[in-house]
Specification:
heterodimer; A: 171 residues; Arc Repressor Mutant, subunit A; 3-stranded antiparallel β-sheet; 6 helices; 4 strands; elongated; B: alpha+beta; Nuclear Transport Factor 2, Chain: A; 3 domains; 13-stranded mixed β-sheet; 11 helices; extended
């Protein structure tokens, strides 16, 4: 009799702990949108004379996307991701604005799992600015994937250009 | 007997905990369902918007074929442009990324480009020709097909209460056996579009396409080996192999727009790599990026500009002039263009990033120069400076002018233009007046801030 009671109580305690943990981790996953620091235009001594291309906020959005997608990648890899976003904007097969490309359903995993709202670092912002100035390490690619985690068969059939860091870039 | 007491306390506690967990679970379930419904509604809206826009697009195309007066043609084609742009944007909101739908998206983009081009043209001077009518007729036929397929799918969605969330799961699981009406409907559209013969999109779009093909064919020259690429790369940055300097060369696949080797140079002191692409034909360095960490800025933008100029001169680019300057995160980035007979050649631009801690070139990009550079004979302008000034909006204060070769927006062919730098309501604009016809070619808004303007120092 005693054993049954203990077993029952132990079961309920385990269930409570488990549901408590799930609750806590789900709160952690809701990463809060932090107000991004205002970087570039604050300094009055900065020299600037260039054609206007995207707004400051679009730049922040792209930096977020690049950071979310390629945090641990070398700088070249981050410029490559930024270049892919811009190549998609230019391409007729994709939406016509950076935010539409980034938020296209299922296009970027960082958007799908909320990593896009993490605060980007300096390297990601610089990568976006380099890509806007024309640097494209991928040579015009519009797709990329991580060969170790990709599940779709279709992405493997695209003509591949090169591998930078963990990502293979293709058209 | 103690156990009796313990159990008398613990049992109700356990019961409460169980009921609590059940209630929480039920709440979570409800929340999940409401979010699912919100996502579903969002997809449904995009889908029904798409069908609506394609419907209207089909009607407008039909109208464009029937309309007789040129006055009516412009608003009709403008509507076609607006509707195909809207349809393209709707497709971008549907979870179709894992399914190839790009031929259809491409077609919508082409329709938008074509109708915009024709709509903004002066139809009195240049009315629609036979070929363009032919294209419109074909587009109308294609639109009929797409419209009927979409209507079928839409009918099914409403009748059988199909969900886009199921489409998403089906596409994500890559399960070939799932029978999904929506996916099948879209696959049918894509297949139909693929089977359409190549349409005559007219001079503008066709020459832009041809230009892209030429870029893809790449630069001329002798084919070089991996070893030669290594040597060219090391020469370019002034380093020698050995003493901890390691070089890797990658062959790269066919996916790149141009064919090039990727060279990575690792130096022991910088702890990071210098990456660059060297073309397989001609062995030209397309771009270079140094990934090192940068220190505190010690060099001024002026000195950085000189350093950039010297670098270009040393690497065979001749005398170049700064057209644009941007300054961020420890670098000064200059866009250099060459001048020929006093005319700035914008298509041959080279971008140089100079680090403000060492004054050395950190990154370099000559993709545009490599693809556009060619022998040119600059024509003499038919319009004088003063005549060009008269063409500029009188509200704009023009501060300087010069001649420049720019890429024409109409068909991508290079055009000689007067570049007028002007000020309007605190913003700087570059206005390009065609030096042969006096037409306004282009207006570019410039972002300015602080420091010296590049044109004051040569």
């Amino acid at each position: 009799m005693r054993k049954i009671w203990f077993a029952g109580i132990a079961l309920i305690v385990v269930a409570a702990v488990f549901s408590g943990l799930t609750l806590l981790s789900s709160i952690e996953n809701q990463v809060v949108v932090k107000g991004a620091k205002n970087t570039a235009t604050g300094n009055a001594n900065q020299t600037k004379f260039h054609a206007s291309s995207v707004s400051e906020n679009d730049l922040r959005l792209m930096a977020n996307a690049v950071y979310g997608e390629s945090r641990g990648e070398p700088f070249e890899g981050q410029v490559a991701v930024a270049a892919v976003i811009l190549n998609r904007v230019k391409s007729p097969s994709f939406p016509n604005t950076p935010s539409a490309v980034i938020f296209e359903p299922r296009a970027f995993t960082a958007v799908a799992d909320g990593q896009i709202w993490l605060e980007p670092n300096e390297s990601a912002s610089k990568a976006v600015k380099s890509a806007l100035k024309g640097w494209d390490p991928t040579g015009g690619c519009t797709y990329y994937f991580n060969p170790e985690t990709a599940t779709s068969q279709w992405i493997w059939s695209r003509p591949q250009a090169k591998k930078i860091g963990k990502h293979i870039f293709c058209r | 007997m103690v156990y009796g007491a313990v159990s008398r306390v613990l049992f109700p506690v356990a019961l409460v905990a169980l009921v609590g967990a059940g209630m929480w679970g039920y709440q979570e379930h409800n929340e999940k369902n409401s979010i699912l419904i919100k996502a579903e509604n969002s997809y449904q809206r995009a889908f029904h918007d798409l069908t609506y826009h394609v419907d209207q697009l089909h009607d407008e195309l039909g109208k464009a074929l029937v309309v007789n007066s040129r006055k009516q043609m412009t608003p009709t084609l403008t509507n076609v442009w607006r509707l195909s742009y809207a349809a393209q944007s709707d497709v971008g909101q549907l979870p179709l990324t894992l399914m190839p739908f790009n031929k259809t998206e491409e077609m919508l983009a082409r329709v938008a480009d074509f109708s915009h081009r024709v709509a903004v043209r002066d139809l009195n001077k240049e009315p629609l020709n036979e070929k363009e009518y032919g294209t419109l007729k074909n587009l109308h036929k294609h639109a009929t097909d797409i419209q009927s397929e979409l209507r079928k799918v839409q009918g099914n969605v409403i009748d059988k209460q199909l969900r886009w969330m199921d489409v998403e799961t089906a596409l994500a699981s890559d399960d070939k056996k799932t029978d999904n009406t929506i996916i099948d409907g879209f696959k049918t559209i894509e297949k139909k579009v693929q089977e359409y013969p190549e349409l005559d999109w007219g001079v503008g779009i066709q020459s832009l396409d041809k230009k892209k093909q030429q870029r893809i064919k790449g630069i001329d020259g002798k084919k070089i080996s991996k070893e030669e690429a290594k040597r060219i790369a090391l020469d370019f940055v002034g380093k020698k192999e050995g003493n901890g300097v390691k070089v890797e060369v990658d062959e790269n696949g066919k996916g790149e727009e141009y064919s090039a080797y990727s060279v990575r140079i690792h130096t022991p002191d910088d702890k990071s790599s210098i990456n660059m692409d060297v073309t397989k034909r001609g062995g030209k360095v397309v771009w270079l990026m140094n990934e090192r960490q940068m220190g505190k800025g010690k060099v001024s933008v002026e000195q950085a500009r000189e350093s950039g100029r010297k670098f270009l001169h040393a690497h065979g680019y001749g005398d170049m002039h700064v057209a644009e300057v941007d300054n961020y995160q420890g670098s000064a980035v200059f866009t250099f263009v060459p001048e020929q007979d006093g005319v700035r050649i914008y298509p041959d631009s080279v971008v140089v990033d100079v680090a403000l801690d060492t004054g050395h070139v950190n990154a370099f990009n000559s993709t545009e120069y490599l693809f556009n550079n060619k022998k040119r004979t600059i024509p003499k302008p038919k319009i004088t400076k003063e005549q060009a000034r008269k063409q500029v909006n009188p509200a704009v204060k023009v501060t300087s002018e010069r001649l420049a070769m720019i890429e024409g927006k109409h068909d991508g062919k290079e055009v000689l233009a007067w570049e007028m730098t002007g000020n309007y309501e605190g913003n700087t604009y570059m206005i390009y007046i065609n030096a042969e016809t006096g037409d306004e070619e282009e207006v570019v808004k410039m972002v300015t801030g602080g420091g010296n303007q590049p044109r004051t120092a040569r």
